[in-house]
């Protein structure tokens, strides 16, 4: 049993993705600060933030609502990986690393959601 959202593996993986996105977007063109850089960072942060916020909700429906938002932000981040590669802002290797992280977050987030749906986790302590 986890004591805080920081113990949730899906959140840990999402937080690592956020750190990677911030590192990578530092090298984006300056004119992208208010565009792709900001959007990519916000989408990545939204994944981890919504997992954290969902963790604190008492009802299963509330938890799942926030985790569903995290899933949407994850798919948005997946697209920004593709766009960053296609615009030449990241190398193919960096793209592969980011996509691997996105896939890992997706796996653990889906497992977390499945556990909540199957009531493996107590609704008040996940």
What's this model, at a glance?
The protein has 126 residues and is mainly α. 71% of the residues lie in helices and 0% in strands. Helix 2 runs antiparallel to helix 3 (60-86).
The count of DSSP E runs of length 2 or more, i.e. the number of strands, is: 0
Strand content: under 5%
Which parts are unreliable, with pLDDT below 50 for 5 consecutive residues or more?
A: 122-126
Class computed from helices, strands and strand pairing = mainly alpha
Explained architecture:
The chain has 126 residues and is an all-alpha fold. 71% of the residues lie in helices and 0% in strands. It contains 4 helices and no strands. The chain has helices at 9-25, 36-55, 60-86, 92-117. α1 (9-25) packs antiparallel against α2 (36-55) and α1 (9-25) packs antiparallel against α4. The chain starts with 8 loop residues before the first helix and ends in a 9-residue tail after the last helix.
Looking at this protein, list some descriptive labels.
about 130 residues, mainly alpha, single chain
Write the layout of secondary structure elements.
Elements: H1 9-25, H2 36-55, H3 60-86, H4 92-117
Helix pairs in contact: 1-2, 1-4, 2-3, 3-4
